[in-house]
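B., you asked whether I could sanity-check this one before it goes into the benchmark set. Here's the sequence:
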Amino acid sequence: MAQPLTLILIDSNFDSRGNTKGALDQFNHIKVLGDYDNLVAGYEASVREKPGIVFIDLTENEDLGIETIEKIISKNKTCVIFVTSEIVDTNLVLRSMRAGAREFLTKPVTIEDLSVALKKARNFIETGEGDSLGQIISVFSNKGGIGKTTIATNLALKLTEITNKRVCLVDLNLQIGDITTFLDISPSFDIAYICAHISRIDESFLLSSLEKYKNKDLYVLADPPNVEQAEEISADDIASILGMLREIFAYVVVDTSSGFDIKTLTCLDMSDHIMLASIVSLTAIRNCQRCLELFQRLEYNPEKVKLIINRYSQDDEISVEDVEEALDRKVYWTFPNSYFTVVSSINKGIPISQIARDSPIDNSFTELAAKLSETEVYINKSGGEEEEEEEGFLAPIMNSIKSLKLFNK
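And here's what the prediction gave me:
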């Protein structure tokens, strides 16, 4: 017989605390170590007892509650935090999840919701799932024409190939997504369908609703076919879907929209890596700087945001070092300028690796995927020829390095 899960309950409301305890009594595999009417006492007990689950109500003091979640997780990384509150809004849910909570249960807590949450918690604790949750990698740029979809699509495929693990590619450019075009697929279902059946969301339902790409372990979650459907998808829907996907897939690669709406920010908040894509042009770098400033205000860990330079040439007037000086940020990766190869890939609806295997641009995607996944790979430098590049297709570049450095003044 499985050992019972230990739990500590923290809720300042006497009646609410009693109702939750009554609900927990319905589960014979749960052992309540204690219930507390204030966050400080509950935190001290959580550190002392090291329970598998801590149930926290945030109604009385949201800020202190969020801080308590962070402190508990810092002391016990495998602890599962359940959160509830009488006041439920998207911002509170996001803050809770960013602090380390795994479930947000609406009040009054039902037996059904609690059963699902406890089942997930047991799996998390007993199988060590906490050490193997999938990584969410979001490719973002607040400027169009950077190559965001190209990066997301080819990176997702490379992660599948070199790790031999399941990868999900998500199109969160909900109004004008292009992933299905880039891969020449016509999915039977899309994200709007999943959101319309959000109450049924589980591993089986998700896998049956995703489009498997050919014989690869790459699954695609497509954008809605109609623009109007995009408006019906909420930030909470996005959070629920991404949360489930990271439990199923080793990597979840997201092609985001270019805006800073609540849906995109929800995705960026949940991401382990934000691949901030840019090119060496005046407007692109200026917009990139604005993104970095916003991410700083959002208190994102600097290591979470990775600066990617697309379509870069060693002959460019502006070097990587110039970009780093202008943005006060190291460039994490550069993709070589392979205009005709990439355009051919897009027009034919097939990945770059099928157009020019082992070419510089294909190898670049392989090496980036290897770096992100910490996988050893062999790079064939001798194969895969690309079409000769022509001048005139690069984005406009500023006239002098001096004007670039004016950004920081």
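One thing to flag: Residues 8 and 54 are 5 Å apart (CA to CA). Otherwise nothing jumped out at me.
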